[in-house]
Structures are given as structure tokens and as C-alpha cells.
Amino acid sequence: xxxxxxxxxxxxxxxxxxxxxxxxxxxxxxxxxxxxxxxxxxxxxxxxxxxxxxxxxxxxxxxxxxxxxxxxxxxxxxxxxxxxxxxxxxxxxxxxxxxxxxxxxxxxxxxxxxxxxxxxxxxxxxxxxxxxxxxxxxxxxxxxxxxxxxxxxxxxxxxxxxxxxxxxxxxxxxxxxxxxxxxxxxxxxxxxxxxxxxxxxxxxxxxxxxxxxxxxxxxxxxxxxxxxxxxxxxxxxxxxxxxxxxxxxxxx
Length: 252
Description:
mainly alpha
């Protein structure tokens, strides 16, 4: 029999937009699966649980930021085409904005909004995204994330700034700022961050320092997996392999 107190708890959960007690177990499972998200079966189960949780608790912050995190990983896949990258990035951005509305003093909504927005922009084309006024929106989300938790996601905020300044078209592109942010990650936030090394290598290679870039990519190739986020580390290694041919060409 359902007790009056249980009914009240369920009603509160629905009215307030917060997931009920059973959702905690689901979110714990989502987090566990996310730690193995480059496994197809784990990724498929994570997607199913995220979609189901969104349907049950569409205004719950803990559900929303995890869903935005999921969509970032999906849109960040190097094998994803531009149209799909844009579509998934936009979906993740929209969900992250709902997370911000639910908990405006928490970093996760702002961070995942910025990262998904970045992939949305890359899918559209950076110049087109700039004409749509996305630069100011991206900056505001990432700046707020940095104010709330500078070291969030293993230095991910400065990694995002570094890539942002590198990918901007001339005359907005600023390789010096890109390098500064990426070196800050490695020096002060997470010395093991492989994506920071790959992005720094890309910046250096296109700034006449291909030999330094190759050294960074060699470090990525030699790094053991599992220091902070195994699927992310493996993705960074794949990005490094893709960049190496360009770096070697620039050295000749």
C-alpha cells in the first residue's frame, strides 16, 4: 500500500521538477556507464537511460546536465559528419540551458552549454556561427563556468578556451591566448590532460613550431590510459593520430 507520505513525496517530485528517490539509482548507473562510454553496449544503455530520465524528470538539474554531457560526447565523435555534429550539439546546448535555469549557481549547466554550443558552431561552420551572434553566448557560458569552478572536468574550461581562440577566423584568431590557456591546463590544472596536449600541438604546428608539436603528440601516444578519464584519453589519442600526419608534413 502506498502511504500518504510517499504520495506527498511523489507529488513534490513531480511539481518541483526534481527526480524522485528511484532516479538516484538510475543516475548512478548513468555515471558508471559514462566511465565506459566508448564501449558500444555501455553507450547504448547510457543513451536509453538518459532519454528515459529526461522523459520522467524534464526539469531536474541532475538529469539535465548528465543528458547535456551525453550529447557533447555524441557530437564530439571525430567520425561524426557536420550536419549530425550540429544537430547533436544543438540538442545538448538546449538541454544544458534548461540545466542552467534549474540551477543557475552550478557549473555543469554552463560548461556543457558552452561545449555543446562549440560543436554546434563547428557543424554549422564557424563563420556562420559568428554571424548568428554565438560568440557572445559561448563566452558568457564559459566565463561563468570558470568563475564557479575553474578546474572543472580535469581542466576542461581552459581546454575549451584554448580551442576557441585557435578556431576563430582571422582577425579574431589568437594563437597566443590559445597557447596560454592550454599551457595553464598542463601546468596548473591537470598535467595528464591529453586533449590539452593535442590542441596545443595543433596551435604550435600552425605557428611554425611543428617540432614542439610532434613532441607533444609523441607524449600523447606514449601516455598510459586511465589517469583521469579513460574514454576521453582514448579519444584524445585518436585525435593525436589524426593530427600527426599534418605535423610531420609541416616539419619538412
